[in-house]
Amino acid sequence: MTAVTTAPAQVGSDEPAVRRRPRRLVGRALLAWIAENALLLALAVVFVSPVVFVVFTSVMHSNQALTGDLLPRSLELGNYVRIFSEAPLATWYGNTVLYAVLSTAFMLVASVPAGYALAKLRFRGSNVIFLAIVVAMLLPPQVTAVPVYVMWSELGLTGSLWPLILPNLLGDAFSVFLIRQFFLTIPTDFANAARMDGASEWGVLWRVMIPMARPGIAAAAIFLFFRSWNDYYGPLLYASENQAAWPVAYGLATYRGIHGTDWAGTMALTVVVLVPVVVVFFLAQKVFVEGIALSGVKG
Amino acid sequence: MTSVIDRLGSPAATGLPGPPASPRIPRKRRRRIAAAAMVAPTVAGLLVFYAYPLVASIYYSFTSYDLFSPPRWVGLTNYEFLFTSDPRIGNAALNTLWFVVVLVPIKIVVALAIAGLLARRTRGSGFWRTVFYLPSLVPPVAGVVAFVFLFNPGSGPVNVVLGFFGIEGPLWFSDPALSKPSLVLLGIWMMGDLMVIMLAGLLDVPRELYEAASLDGANGWQQVRFVTLPTIQPILGFSVVTGVIAALQYFTEAAVASSVASGQAAVGSGTASTLGYPGDSLLTYTQWLYVRGFSNYQLGYASAMAVVLFVTASILLVVAMRRISAFHPEEVS
């Protein structure tokens, strides 16, 4: 350990738990400190550079984007306008928002009570249900794809995103799991106090437990939102033949096929797909980091 | 942690004022009814979207079925074809195995190494963590499209930068020998969620252990080997199991890379010519299952492939359920 290490930083906060002034560095420790920071800086540059090059190319003239130039010669924001006319981008965006928002809302309705019941109300069969949820969460979706597809096709809903949205009304395995894990960390005392005051089980859940579980529920919601926003396999399976139903990530995958050499436009579209993700991340940064740490490895 | 009051059950038994609603039904019973109502939708979902399809997949796998006429029983024909005659399935399975064996460990090692660097610092750790975490949120499709551009041999910045050093860059996503390694680079770029999990684990390692080891004369590597790794072993196990399960279904990155690098329409839009491009180097098992089932409408055969995938994944599921404590139901308090 170098001399700079003090107390371990708290996960989920930007500040170390204990702030101590770094000791004066001498000799080997100084060298190690420099080497470590140089390595970290180099890695950070490598990790950031893909995004930088994508953004640069997205504002190049489409002819310049075909050359080996790294820096744009002029600022061509027209690419961002052009892609809206070359692809039904507004529709795709609307589809994505609909898919992500409805999925998340539907998931919450079913998964929050289920996660709570599995964590806090012991009842016969709860262990079996929990194990089934773990299996469902880990099972590759391709295993069940054929019969599920047949079901949706008999309902006449293929060619739309509904086969991906509606199942959330019946809970989402990973979300139930995550929410249950969070409820496990909440003490039962408050719930018991509310019960003594005559609250019903639903009242306990709604007025006592949900407010305390907000961080865990938020993490589950954001994860599902991103899973839907980023989904490619689902829309490919159910909506690939109907361009009007495509979400934007799926449209991006096909864009280059149609506009073969248009790297500038493709990169502009990539940026358009990326931006909301980055914005949501910075709005809810803390939720993410806590949620990931929660997602399975605790204890 | 059921309290005494709950165990005693009805308000009458406790002498406490009863709840206003339906006082006749004892508390314990009402609690059971509420619990059942809370899990009912989820249980229905498990039955409709998991239990029934699993059984139906097994049934379909013994049939010839094209969605338009009813399934016709063909016995073991699908399995026979799968294991002996399907021309591309062997290659597809090997490619998937390649991702399991190469991608998963590389991602874990890189995530652990970067988490190790971050765990040692106190100032600005939030900034560094964000830099390495953020790419993992990038939609995989956008990540692939960006990487195919970055690595494209014509104008891609990677080969341009390599050119500064006098290195003639390879064809990357268009070279059958390098297409999978190129996707590993993408996987490394997107390892952030794994890194955060590792970081949480590393910060949980008690510092006294390092101090004790250091007093005993352990050098840096020995501290990693005998203190860090054994302590975070559960996290490593979790990462391996979930990583392998994800690699078994490796689909999006490979399919999109093939279609974008070949410059033609995507898998779903009807052209099978981009499938696995270049060569068959990016054709994975799940892509082949998709093509068989949903491009060719050989749903019986696709079901047989799904059953084989299920059997393979089951082995991992069993390991996961036994070894990962978060997956144990007994924790319920």
Automatic annotation (TrEMBL), chain A:
It is a multi-pass membrane protein. GO terms for cellular component: plasma membrane. InterPro entries: MetI-like (IPR000515), MetI-like_sf (IPR035906). Residues 93-284 form the ABC transmembrane type-1 domain. It is found in: Cell membrane. Keywords: Cell membrane, Membrane, Transmembrane, Transmembrane helix, Transport. Its main location: membrane. The chain crosses the membrane at residues 29-56, 97-116, 128-152, 164-183, 204-226, 263-284. GO terms for biological process: transmembrane transport. Belongs to the binding-protein-dependent transport system permease family. This is Carbohydrate ABC transporter permease. The lineage of its organism: Bacteria, Bacillati, Actinomycetota, Actinomycetes, Micrococcales.
UniProtKB/TrEMBL annotation, chain B:
Keywords: Cell membrane, Membrane, Transmembrane, Transmembrane helix, Transport. Belongs to the binding-protein-dependent transport system permease family. One of its GO terms (cellular component) is plasma membrane. One of its GO terms (biological process) is transmembrane transport. It is a multi-pass membrane protein. It comes from the Bacteria. The chain crosses the membrane at residues 33-62, 97-119, 131-151, 183-205, 226-251, 299-320. Residues 93-320 form the ABC transmembrane type-1 domain. It comes from Labedella populi. InterPro entries: ABC_transporter_permease, MetI-like, MetI-like_sf. Its main location: membrane. PROSITE patterns: ABC_TM1. It is found in: Cell membrane. Pfam families: BPD_transp_1. SUPFAM superfamilies: MalF N-terminal region-like (SSF160964), MetI-like (SSF161098). This is Sugar ABC transporter permease.
